[in-house]
Amino acid sequence: MSKNAKTLGDRIRAKAGDAPVRLGLILGSGLSHLTEAVDGVSIDYADLDGFPHSGVSGHNPKLVIGMLEGVRVAVFGGRAHYYESGRGDAMRLPLEVLKELGADSLIVTNAAGSMRSDIPPGELMLLSDHINFSGLNPLIGEPTDARFVPMTAAHDPMIRAALKKAARAVGVTLNDGVYAWYSGPSFETPAEIRAIRILGADAVGMSTVPEIILARFLGLRVAAISAITNMAAGMSDENISHEHTKAMAPIGAEKLEKTLRQYLRDLD
Fold it and tell me: Which of 45, 54, 81, 223 is catalytic?
């Protein structure tokens, strides 16, 4: 754990209290309104030295610590993307802070494009696995042998099972699928989408995979859910854009919030 993470952990506890956080939640594009559901303390990323200052619209760069459905959580209202700085490890410090605050697990959310006609915009997809199509890795430059992180069961089976149970309880369809990370910021070409489909991907996006790798590196259990906002390039006639992503994200966000609230209620 870095010295900066310990320092920030102390500063956050001074504002939000000493009770340990149980769960972290990273919110994707158009999903950051969920920070408002937490009964707790909100801290701007700008007030946390070393935290990313997300310049992506549709994100709310705040860390909120508090209670949601009786569980103490840390909610990240925005994330840093590789395409903003060229740094694959841009979310390392926030996740180190999450670990410092006592969390043992993380749920990551994102907005993604679907490559399956049975998972159209407005639906949710629980990641069963991922493909690092970018070839980048947030642990490049890590000097210790801890960098050799096994990824066979990176998407925690127990968390995934609990999320599926929660979704069924609230009447939400939670599809299974493989997510491919594309670096962005330009969207994929139809040829790239055809290639990713051949490789076995069901959805594509510009985030999440670095956070999953970092979470496993830090010993956090992790699961991830995509809110499908569009069909991938060449899969439909729709005009793919970031504005379209933000407009469609709230449809999936409502289902996502219901599922996450039930998941938290079900925690022991």
Answer: 81
Which residue among the candidates 32, 59, 227, 235 is catalytic per the annotation?
59
Instruction: Tell me how crowded residue 47 is: count the other CB atoms within 10 A of its CB.
Output: 13
Per the annotation, the verdict on 84 as an active-site residue is yes
The helix/strand/coil state of 233 is: coil
Q: Which of 32, 54, 207, 226 is labelled catalytic?
A: 207
CA 4 to chain centre: 23
> Residue 260 is part of which domain span?
3-266
Question: Is residue 29 flagged as an active site residue?
Answer: yes
The answer to whether residue 83 is catalytic is yes
Report how far residue 23's alpha carbon sits from residue 41's, in angstroms, rounded to the nearest whole number: 15
* pLDDT per residue as tens digits for the range 181-228: 999 899 899 999 999 999 999 999 999 999 999 999 999 999 999 999
Provide the CATH number for the domain around residue 18: 3.40.50.1580
Structure tokens at 15: 């504002």
Provide the domain count of the chain: 1
Q: What residues have CB less than 8 Å from 93, skipping those under 6 apart?
A: 2, 4, 5, 8, 50, 51
Helix (H) or strand (E) holding 7: helix 3-16
Give the span between the Cα atoms of 67 and 253, in whole angstroms.
19
Identify whether the C-beta of residue 8 lies closer than 8 Å to the C-beta of residue 49.
Answer: yes
Unique residue bearing structure tokens 């590789």: 82
